[in-house]
């Protein structure tokens, strides 16, 4: 049996959902949910069921406050670790590492750890919208419909009160106060934008126009490297509650030249009936499975990865639908 996966922040709004998705995908996989509050983590572990335990961690320590005999198969960091001790811990032990909460303007320290020890461990940078689902969906439908991609715009549309847990709220406060700019690519030029340049009109799945705000997420850099697209952005918008429980929309809009040589516009809507943490958690769980080599392919070698370099987009779309995500496409 594999050593357990250490889910740092596994008791949080996203972390508990990553644990639940992983339990559904891999009933026998041992999980350890970690946070500062052991009782909270134990309660979530009991609810997740199967071989799931809880542990208290201290991220300010290089050993994370864990016993020297503790052994894991991967470290999945579902929070912003301001010390990066979790990355050093994983690299030092040759364990796969998943980074989930770094915006595009703050990945420098993680990159430097990789540069210092590229042979030590696989590191997946997953600071993408909805845990990489937006990038993977865009790549899947771009390949299906287009031979040349000109632009990709991703949008998350969420309930007005869906702000994630305290860690998510702290991340957004850090963003607004310290670096209120978003990275976009416009006509081939990389730009950090704010104010009106960072605003975009988004049409939600009911056809209502919403005001979206661009965010500095990693999808734009992934998609710029993986496609020909000269214009790229990711926005978030809120809408009124549906009144029928939480719901999250991912809207993917792609334009370019179709396989028949005609100009095409593709719009794809993915809808999940939960807070946005669940779609994100599905992304993190599918990536964790892949990092562990549990999807029929060998575990990745040490290296630096983005979701599209590890996961096959079509397979991810199929598995998301098995997990209850609805997909609707419009091509014109
Ligand atoms: N890439 C994406 O798609 C994506 C999507 C959504 C969210 N996120 C990111 O995911 C993170 C978690 O969001 P959330 O909404 O789940 O927040 P949350 O509910 O506050 O969860 C945070 C988790 O981390 C633990 N934690 C917080 N500070 C800690 C510390 N210093 N040491 C050890 N454990 C600590 C918490 O447990 P204790 O309180 O017991 O310590 C809890 O388990 C945020 O950073 C957010 O930005 C990323």
TrEMBL record:
Record Gene3D superfamilies: NAD(P)-binding Rossmann-like Domain
Name of this chain's protein: Saccharopine dehydrogenase
Record-linked InterPro entries: NAD(P)-bd_dom_sf (IPR036291)
Superkingdom in the source lineage: Bacteria
Lineage of source species: Bacteria, Pseudomonadati, Myxococcota, Polyangia, Nannocystales
């Amino acid at each position: 049996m594999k050593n357990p996966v250490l889910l740092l922040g596994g008791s949080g709004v996203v972390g508990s959902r990553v644990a639940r998705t992983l339990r559904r995908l891999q009933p026998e996989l041992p999980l350890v949910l970690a946070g500062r509050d052991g009782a909270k983590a134990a309660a979530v572990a009991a609810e997740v069921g199967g071989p799931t335990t809880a542990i208290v961690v201290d991220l300010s320590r290089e050993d994370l406050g864990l016993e020297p005999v503790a052994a894991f198969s991967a470290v999945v960091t579902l929070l912003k670790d301001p010390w990066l001790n979790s990355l050093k811990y994983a690299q030092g032990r040759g364990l796969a590492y998943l980074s989930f909460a770094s915006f595009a303007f703050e990945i420098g320290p993680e990159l430097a750890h990789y540069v210092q020890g590229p042979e030590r461990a696989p590191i997946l940078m997953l600071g993408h919208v909805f845990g990489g689902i937006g990038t993977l969906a865009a790549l899947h439908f771009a390949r299906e419909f287009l031979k040349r991609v000109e632009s990709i715009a991703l949008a998350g549309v969420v309930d007005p009160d869906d702000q994630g847990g305290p860690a998510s709220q702290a991340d957004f406060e850090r963003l607004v106060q310290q670096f209120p700019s978003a990275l976009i690519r416009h006509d081939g030029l990389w730009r950090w934008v704010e104010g009106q340049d960072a605003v975009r009109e988004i049409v939600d799945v009911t056809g209502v126009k919403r005001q979206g705000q661009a965010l500095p997420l990693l999808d734009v850099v992934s998609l710029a490297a993986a496609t020909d697209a000269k214009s790229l952005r990711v926005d978030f918008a809120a809408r009124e509650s549906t009144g029928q429980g939480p719901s999250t929309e991912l809207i993917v809009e792609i334009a370019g030249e179709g396989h028949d040589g005609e100009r095409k516009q593709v719009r794809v809507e993915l809808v999940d009936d939960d807070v946005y943490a669940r779609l994100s958690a599905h992304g993190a769980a599918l990536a964790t499975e892949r990092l562990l080599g549990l999807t029929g392919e060998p575990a990745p070698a040490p290296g630096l990865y983005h979701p599209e370099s590890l996961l096959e987009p079509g397979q991810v779309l199929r598995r998301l639908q098995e997990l209850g995500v609805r997909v609707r496409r419009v091509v014109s």
